[in-house]
Design a protein that fits this description.
Oligomer: single chain
Order of helices and strands: EEEEEEEEEEEEEHEEEEH
Distance between the termini: 46 Å
CATH class of the largest domain: Mainly Beta
Number of helices: 2
CATH architecture of the largest domain: Beta Barrel
Helix content: under 10%
Shape: globular
């Protein structure tokens, strides 16, 4: 049976018809598949979304008060239980922990197929001027990346499908597939949509705990970690929310423009 696996430690496995949610306190072992340990100073936009103090998803700095993550990271949770750690290479120590006071989930988010899997979180206070914290720009609105483009994905995800979170931030490079190749390589498993893009290599990919994290190409964020098919680093590529999709991009920019303290 094909499994569409969500990469948050609150949500474990999603099939075509059912969603299983698990409130897990992860151990600090494992790593992003095929990755290397990195310093937050080189990835200042990377954030850790915490539930009751435990890492569940990645996120990225979009503006002075808004963080971007996956829609499924924002469902089935109470906002009062969420915080965000920024400015630290570890997800359980250091940096600054911010209180989250509001969630904005894409209005067309579909829990069944993870279409429009994107969410913005608003913090109390500001990311601006804080040590080792900086925003990441969105990719261009054109939506077409060159064939063979290599992106960078970062996070605190596990080393294997049923693994646990890592303590130290890791990153890996992944090949970003064209829309045609994405469709061909996933058609036997899932139906990808216009709001999705594929990336990954066998043995080098995202894993559980990386949900919501940024996929970056040429210093701009082009995707948000959404789900994997069957296993981490397997033959099927990982699937991301495509930030050049008009509906996704309009949703993000509208929330940023609506925020009165958006200046960084």
């Amino acid at each position: 049976m094909v499994q569409r696996i969500l990469l948050t430690f609150l949500t474990i496995a999603l099939s075509e018809v059912s969603l299983a949610i698990e409130d897990t306190k992860p151990l600090a072992t494992g790593r992003i598949v095929g990755g290397r340990q990195v310093d937050i100073r080189d990835f200042p936009y990377q954030l850790s979304l915490l539930h009751d103090g435990y890492h569940i998803c990645g996120a990225s700095v979009m503006s002075s008060r808004l963080a971007l993550t996956a829609g499924h990271c924002c469902t089935g949770v109470n906002v009062s239980n969420l915080t965000i750690r920024g400015g630290s290479s570890t997800n359980d120590f250091g940096g600054i922990v911010f209180t989250v006071d509001r969630l904005f989930i894409h209005p067309e988010y579909d829990v069944r197929n993870l279409n429009f899997d994107v969410c913005l979180l608003r913090i109390v206070g500001t990311f601006a001027g804080k040590p080792n914290i900086g925003l990441i720009q969105l990719g261009t609105s054109g939506g077409t990346l060159p064939t063979g483009a290599i992106g960078t994905v970062s996070g605190w995800g596990a080393t294997q499908t049923n693994g646990n979170a890592v303590r130290n931030l890791r990153a890996t490079q992944v090949k970003i597939l064209t829309t045609k190749d994405c469709t061909i390589q996933t058609q036997n498993y899932v139906n990808t949509t216009e709001s999705m893009l594929c990336a990954g290599n066998v043995g080098s990919s995202i894993c559980v705990g990386d949900s919501g994290g940024p996929l970056v190409y040429q210093q701009r964020q082009v995707g948000v970690v959404s789900f994997i098919i069957n296993e981490c680093g397997g033959i099927a590529p990982a699937v991301y929310t495509r930030l050049s999709n008009k509906s996704v991009r309009d949703f993000i920019t509208r929330q940023i423009n609506n925020d009165q303290q958006r200046r960084f």
